[in-house]
Fold this protein.
Amino acid sequence: MYTTQRQRGSTLIDVCAACVMGSIAMVIALPSYHNWIEGERRNDAVDALQRVQQAQADYHAVHGGYAMKLDALPGTPRELSDRGLYRITMFSDGPDNFEVHASALPDGPQARDPSCAHVTLRVNTGVIAYEPSPRCWNP
């Protein structure tokens, strides 16, 4: 009596099918992953601008007006964001308003995020405006 032995393993077709399915999954997932990474990097700008806003609120409580320069604020907010992806600048033309910009560094990874490469927080007599869009502020 003859016994047949089954060979175990994968055929070339099985391996090719697995590679094709993996490639399709990567094509679908990769854009979402890049959007998530950009959003996480945008948090760096949002955090920096919110720190300046809090420092301005503290300054306003003590002095009755907003600081005219970034280095006049308590805790001296830094010129670069925590992760070093954005340059922080502040403009003010009076004690009742200020404007803070976070601009992506031109040679940094966020420079490729054109719609949110420049994020702005504007306060005018207590009214706050977040620019350029809510998507940049809620990644």
